[in-house]
Amino acid sequence: MERKGKYFESELPEGYRTVKTIDAKDKKVGVILNLIALIPLTISLLVAYYAMGEPTLIADDASVWEFPMSILVSCIVLIAYVIFHELVHGAVYKFFTREKLTFGLTFTVAFCGVPKIYVYRKPALAAVLAPFVVFLPIFLTLCFVLPTPLMKIIAAFMLGLHIGGCAGDLWVSGLLIFKLRDNKTLINDTGPKQTFCIPYTEEN
Fold this sequence. Notes:
Structural class: alpha+beta
């Protein structure tokens, strides 16, 4: 327990106040995040599709069985990605806090959190950004190295889903990088809901 007090607090210290809350279970927030997620998905698919020259190459390249097999593989990869995305969040939180993690899945969001503690800004930022940093180069590389146009389209689809699926993570990261820059900032992350707290001063 030597990390306690350096990376997190078991309770919110005196003199702190809540300045921001992001709740992905809120219907409005959930709709906004899912609409934002469609943007990188659409862009990645369009870029991949037309970067290959004649779009008909994709259809000509695929055999009759390859399309249904590709759909099946895509579903399996998507499920695996969601699981590993949340496990990466959890691994970083576990490294810094060694506290019990919470995992879950709702209609609008999959999540991982450490609901019983308040995590300081730097470890929270590392945990929130970790999946984006880990999986972005993987899917980008697959877009170039996979052998067939159809496979590359699937990789581009996963790339777009990854970036779009990180919309909430990037929102939280943006707040911590550009607005809540005090390293004394604490975050209570239940998974779908993040509560940001800062030391109270007359200035803020």
